[in-house]
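Weekly sync notes, structure subgroup
Attendees: PM, AL, DS (notes)

Item 1: joint prediction request from the bench team. They want all two components modeled as one assembly rather than separately. Inputs as received:
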Amino acid sequence: MSHGSTGSEPSEGDLRKTGLALKHDREWDYELDRIVSAVNERDASTVGLQFPEGLKRRGPAVADDLRSLLGDDVHVMISGQPCYGACDLDTYLMRRTDVFVHFGHSPMKESEKIIYVPLFSNVDVTPIMEETIDELPEEDVGLVTTAQHMNRFEEMRSWLEERDYTVHTRRGDERLTHEGQVLGCNYASADIDADQILYVGGGKFHPLGLAMEHPDKRVVIADPVNNVVTVADTEKFMKQRYGAVHRAMDADRWGVVFCTKIGQGRWEVATDIVENNDDAYLITMDEVTPDRLRNFDFDAFVNTGCPRITTDDGPQFHKPMLTPGEYEIAVGNEPLESLSFDTFHGTW
Amino acid sequence: MSHGSTGSEPSEGDLRKTGLALKHDREWDYELDRIVSAVNERDASTVGLQFPEGLKRRGPAVADDLRSLLGDDVHVMISGQPCYGACDLDTYLMRRTDVFVHFGHSPMKESEKIIYVPLFSNVDVTPIMEETIDELPEEDVGLVTTAQHMNRFEEMRSWLEERDYTVHTRRGDERLTHEGQVLGCNYASADIDADQILYVGGGKFHPLGLAMEHPDKRVVIADPVNNVVTVADTEKFMKQRYGAVHRAMDADRWGVVFCTKIGQGRWEVATDIVENNDDAYLITMDEVTPDRLRNFDFDAFVNTGCPRITTDDGPQFHKPMLTPGEYEIAVGNEPLESLSFDTFHGTW
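Output from the run, pasted for the record:
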C-alpha cells in the first residue's frame, strides 16, 4: 500500500484542511426546495434560519436565495446565537417563526416545526480509507462517522467488506439519527463487538471522545478532510482530567452548572448534587464559558451541560471544572479508578 | 473652597475607586427579610437570584444566608447569565422559579413574580458635591443620579437648595422608577429647564450618555465613588461615532441585530430597516458581542438592542456598528447633522 498525497499542495476543489470553511456555496446543498415547500404548505409568514458557527457566514447568501424563491410577505431571520449541535436549538427564534430551519446537524428529535438540513460533505472518503489498512489488522472492525459524512456510510461499509472485513455497526440510542453516527457527547454506536473501530471524518474531536468512552478499543482515524490517518491517543486528555479532579479535591464551595440549552439539560443530575452537598450551589446559564464563571467565587465547578466544554475546554476555566462523574471522585464518593468519559443520552 | 483629598491613600471603609467591588458584605442590604416574606407568602419551593456582573461573586453568600432562613424544601438557584440592567432579566430562570429576585437595579416594570432589590450605596455624597460649586455658576441646576444613589436624592436636593440653587428634577418616562434617575439608555429625567446638570454617581458611563443626549447642556460629574469632579466631554465619543458612520457608508450588506433580551427589543425598528433595504438581514441574539458578529459576513451592522453596546463598545466590532439613527445617516436617508444619541423608552 502506498502512502499517498498527504503533503502535496491543495488544488482547486481539494477540501483538505478546509473543514467547513469551503470556498464555494455549491459545495453544500441547502435543500432550499424542501424549505420553500414547507413554507408554502404551512402558509408561513416567518422563517428562522440557524447555522453552526463555521457556516454562519453563509447565512446572508442562503437568506438571499430563499427570499428570491419566497414571496415578499415572508420574512427570513437568522439566528445569531452560538450553535454547537442539534442539542443547541435557538428556542427563542424557533418559537417565534412559523418554519425553523436548523442547518448542519442531523435531527436529535423530530418536530413539526423544525426542518433539519444536514449539509453532507462531498469529500471522497475511500482514498484515505485505503491508508488505514495497515492500522486495522483484525478481521472485525467497527465503523462510525459523523453527520457530515453519513451520505457515504454505505460506501464506507462496502469498501471495508470488499477487503474482507467483518463490519460491525449499530445505531446507538435515540439521541442519534443514523446507524454508525457519533456525536461529541454520545458514542453508543460504537458499543459493538470489535476491538478496533474505524472513524471516518474530519478532525480529532469525535474520535478522542470515542477513545475516551471506549478505552479498551483501538480507534483508527481516517480523516478525509485533512487527509491524514492517525490512531486516537487519549493520554494527554486523561492526564488533564486527572489533574482537574485532583485540584478539585480541596474545594470548599462548588458551583453546579445547569445548562439551559434545550438538548443539554440534566436537571436531576444537577439537583441531586446540590441536595446532597451543603457547599454546592446551582447556577443556570445557556453558554457555559470561562468569562461567565469567572464572576463567581467558587473553588470548583461541576458542569452538567455539554461534557465537551468540561473535558476539552477545562484548562481555560479559572477553577477546576468537572463532569458529574469526576465530581463524585473529587468529593470521595467514588474511587479514582471510576473516572470515565461523560456521555449524554436521550433528547429533551 | 478647598480641593480635598482626591489624591490620598484609601483607608478602611473608604469606598473610593472600589465601585461595586466592596470588601464587606455589610456594605449592602440584600433585604433578605423581604425575600423570605415573599417566599412564605407565596408558599414558594424555588427561588431564583440574579445579580449584575460586579456582584455575582456575592451570590453564594447571599444564597447561603437565604438557605439558612428558609426551609430545606426551598431550592435556591443563581442565574449565571450576564446581567447589565433591569432590562436584562433572566427570563429562563424567572419562568422556572416561584420567586425571582433581581439585585442591583430598580424596577423597569413591576411584576408579581419579581422582587427588585436595589442595593443602595452607603457612600456619602455631599463631600464631593462641595467640590462642584465652582463648576456650577448658574442658579438653575438639573439634578440626576443612578439607582445606587437614589437613597440620597433628597439629601442632594436639599444640599443644593441650601446653597441657593433652583433645583430642577423630573421623573422621565415609564422606563425609570424614580425622579431624577438616569439609565445608560435613558436620560428623560434631564429634560428640564436648566443649562447645567449635576450628575452625582460613580463613573463616566451615565454622564457621557447624558451629555450625548443633551449636547446643549453642561454636565458636571460629582463622583463620590472615585472622589473626583469632572465635566463630561463627549468629543472623543462623537469622533468615534462619526468615524463609524463614515466607514459604514460604503456597506453593501447590512446585518440588523434584534436583541432578544426582555427589555431591549425594538422589533419595529429592526423590521422597518429590513423591509426597506433589500441588502439588510435580520439577526436575532441575546448577548450582542464582537465574537458572535464576527461569524457573519456583513459589511456593517445596525444594533437595535442596547445603544451602549453600539456606542461604547463600537470599536471592538470587526465592522462598523451603528445605532438605528446612525444607520439612517449612513444610507443617506438623514443628514449627518441629525446624528444623536440613541435612547430607549418604554418597558416591554
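Discussion: DSSP finds eleven helices and 13 strands in chain B.
Action: AL to compare against the crosslinking data before next sync.
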